[in-house]
Amino acid sequence: xxxxxxxxxxxxxxxxxxxxxxxxxxxxxxxxxxxxxxxxxxxxxxxxxxxxxxxxxxxxxxxxxxxxxxxxxxxxxxxxxxxxxxxxxxxxxxxxxxxxxxxxxxxxxxxxxxxxxxxxxxxxxxxxxxxxxxxxxxxxxxxxxxxxxxxxxxxxxxxxxxxxxxxxxxxxxxxxxxxxxxxxxxxxxxxxxxxxxxxxxxxxxxxxxxxxxxxxxxxxxxxxxxxxxxxxxxxxxxxxxxxxxxxxxxxxxxxxxxxxxxxxxxxxxxxxxxxxxxxxxxxxxxxxxxxxxxxxxxxxx
Length: 301
Description:
Layout: E1 9-13, H1 18-29, E2 33-37, H2 52-62, E3 66-70, H3 77-91, E4 96-98, H4 114-144, E5 151-156, H5 159-163, H6 169-189, E6 194-201, H7 206-212, H8 232-239, E7 250-254, E8 257-260, H9 281-291
Parallel strand pairs: 1-2, 1-4, 2-3, 4-5, 5-6, 6-7
Antiparallel strand pairs: 7-8
Helix pairs in contact: 1-2, 1-8, 3-4, 4-6
């Protein structure tokens, strides 16, 4: 087997189940040393007595790999610093962060409470910020000390963030923010030898089974399009040294189909030398909308 992540040290958040677990197992199989971070919370972020991170670490070690468990809160500034430092202390270095942790509090926008909004934004958007920020500071210090840095940030956006999703305003807003954060990280951190890319996975997890259980159900005798393991090889490649030339991209992967998402860019325009009159804008806007390529629909419409 051509192992493409030998000796890479990787933190994966939310790695106790679903996509995160699949990433951890694949990266370990590819030779990486993995920090399996998971609080063991429920799908709504509620506390449980479960410690799935330990189970994943046991699987990796049983297969001959190296891993450690972490129970730090990724959205807590001090706890996320401990997470990054724990990886460095245990394995002597840090090469990549895969930000995957999250939960949902689905609610129609008109019914969403501030508490639900804040909880979702916190774990997704702030969680991505905290862990990546501490990792980036470490890599910058290594770069300034004259070391060659070849590091990776892999973020998790969503189709909900790229095109919106009914009943998921907080989740969609957080995931849209993560997509844009990825672009800024890629632009700012390149000077230190760090790339940043994002994923918009289409997979069967505890979160997606709540809303799309029937559509994502595995069909006997057929390729399991929505198995979490389908996304794991892309994560391994992005974490590897082979992806050094790729940064600032958002990838969508559905089963065996991989594609790049195209973000906001300039569309049709109409120009005049002076200021538009308000009454004239209706016809101008209608022409612009008619001339643009058709947008993907909001999920659930």
